[in-house]
Amino acid sequence: AVGIRQASLYYHFPSKTEIFLTLLKSTVAPSTVLAGDLSTLDASPELRLWALVAAEARLLLSTKWNVGRLYQLPIVASDEFEEYHGQRAALTNTFREIATEILGADPRTELPFHITMSAIEMRPNDGTVPSPLSDESLPDTAIMLADAALAVLGAELPADRVNQSLQLIKQADER
Fold first, then answer.
1. Which of 52, 166, 169, 168 is nearest to 112 (CA)?
2. Which of 44, 99, 101, 130 is the most buried (most CB within 10 A)?
3. For the chain, percent of residues with pLDDT exceeding 90
């Protein structure tokens, strides 16, 4: 129970599909904005990709419920959610573009996005926040996944990557 009457909910949303679409878009919109901002900052592609993976994993680990699981529901494949699919494709493409700057044309450029999304499988869905958002630190899981994303590309880990990434995330948030 969320404390909202059905009539009130349908006053704002014409259908269950619209409610779900709004929820889906709310999970990908902040990440898409952050990814776009990080991709344009003045930093090496290795640092930008590392920061993007860490930032996205950080977001996936910062909610009470595992909203990333919504992406896996069969209904999401429906054409009714085309707007969401476009946003998610843009996010995926940003990961791929930065990885391509590091590796060139190589199928491994698809992997950093999927490594990041593994945070969904690595966290509980029991109403607890695994890693509250912090401007001072990144969750250990986010660091591990970001390291893995660069390792799979055969890229060097940037020096002082955690502090530099926190600064990049802060810069992106301020834009």
1. 52
2. 99
3. 61
